[in-house]
Amino acid sequence: MARHIHPLKVVLVCLVVAQAAFGEVALAQDQAAASSSSPSAPSTPATFRFLAVDHNGNPVTDLRAEDLSVRISNQPRKIVSLNRADSDPRTIGLFFDISGSRRGDNLIPKEVGAVVKFMESNWRPRDVGFVVLFNDAPYTVEKPTSDLPSIVAALQKVPYQRAIGSTALYDALCSVSVVGPQTGRGEKLFIVVGDFEDNSSRKSVREMIETVRQQQIRVFSLFRLEEIDYQRQSHELRVRKIAKNIAEKTGGDVLTVSTEKDLDTAFQRLANELRGAYRLDYEPPPQEPKLEPQIQTARHNVDFLFPRD
Questions:
Q1: pLDDT digits (tens, 9 = 90+) for 261-308
Q2: May I ask the CATH class of domain 90-275?
Q3: What are the boundaries of each domain within the chain?
Q4: Rounded-to-integer distance, Cα 217 and Cα 132, Å
């Protein structure tokens, strides 16, 4: 027998279902509105490292966050924190040119002595160092280690190496795999001792710069300036321009040396630059461009070393 359904009950059921559906839609709309009106979660700060010295090459150690401004693509970014970083662990790669162009160079033993002195005066227990020689190919003579005596022993063998062959400087600097995973912290710097000439690398200077920038490595060249005749002046100017470009792109420096006295001055300058190390955290753009931050200060007599595009 067919059941009789009262029309009023049907109407009531429909109203209840419609009200429930309307309530779900309204709740979803309220949640969306609340989500759009609430502030977005803060982005993770990005870290930027730089070195600060005064015009005389002395370290600047009293910078404050309010002294600085940070811009990316000419847009200001908020500074989250600024901290001294001169006590952070460092990775120091030492690259010595033993190519034929250095045959008979009497300054090589003095260079080694100055590097050893620098390492012994500035070494900390958590630092890592290694030694690479290069002529027409790079040769790792001391792998990354925290044992300073092993590094010094490797350096002291350099004057006894036979200077032969062409120069593959860019290939040597591109061999960053020698650094190893244990050194991805703190400052990373490569110190190149030689005339900065390159005449046999497979890698171009542009490829080398891209490689070391990706690894956040600073390149410091101990640029060997020799007495030359007029025919070589244009060559020296070209090489020196390349060295300065590499330093600018990586946040390093060019330390010109022609006499034994210049060696002490150059390494004192480098030590001062490292004592002016800072670690700055800032808010990155929503879609951070592949550009290095640029920092400025209203303070006078302050020079910054950081990678520049």
A1: 899 999 999 999 999 999 999 998 887 556 789 999 999 999 999 999
A2: alpha beta
A3: 46-85+278-305, 90-275
A4: 15
